[in-house]
Amino acid sequence: MDILIHSEGFTLDDRKKAMIEEKVGRLENYAPRALRARVTLRLDSAHHNDKQFAAKILIEIPGNDLAAAKHLLHALKHQ
C-alpha cells in the first residue's frame, strides 16, 4: 500500500513521518485490498487550543473508500 503524507502549515520531520507510515501500514492487516492511504495533517489555528490540528486519512480500496478525521491538540503525540 502506498502511503502519501501531506502537512499544511507546519513541517513534519523524518521521525514523525516514519511513525505515521508504521501506524498506517498496520491497516493493511484489516484492509488487505487497500491500494493507497492519503494522510493530511493541518494546522487549523496558530493559537493554542483543543482543536489546533486536524488529521485526516483516506484509505483507497477498490469499491468503497474509507475516511476518518480528528481534531487534535498536538500534531503527533507518540502513544
- Extract low-pLDDT stretches: none
Order of strands in the sheet with the most strands? Answer: 1-2-3-4
Shape type: elongated
How many strands appear in the DSSP assignment?
4
How many alpha or pi helices?
1
Q: Average pLDDT value?
A: 86
Class based on secondary structure composition and strand pairing: alpha+beta
Strand content: 35-45%
Helix content: 10-25%
Main beta sheet strand tally, sense and closure: 4 strands, mixed
Radius of gyration based on Cα positions = 13 Å
SSE string:
EHEEE
Distance between the termini: 23 Å
Task: Describe this structure as you would to a colleague.
With 79 residues, the protein is α+β, with helices and mostly antiparallel strands. It has 1 helix and 4 strands. The protein has one helix at residues 14-25, and strands spanning 2-8, 36-43, 53-60, 66-72. The protein is elongated and about 40 Å long.
Structure in a nutshell:
The protein is an alpha+beta fold and 79 residues long.
Give short descriptive properties of this protein:
79 residues; four-stranded mixed sheet
Q: Secondary-structure map with pairings?
A:
Layout: E1 2-8, H1 14-25, E2 36-43, E3 53-60, E4 66-72
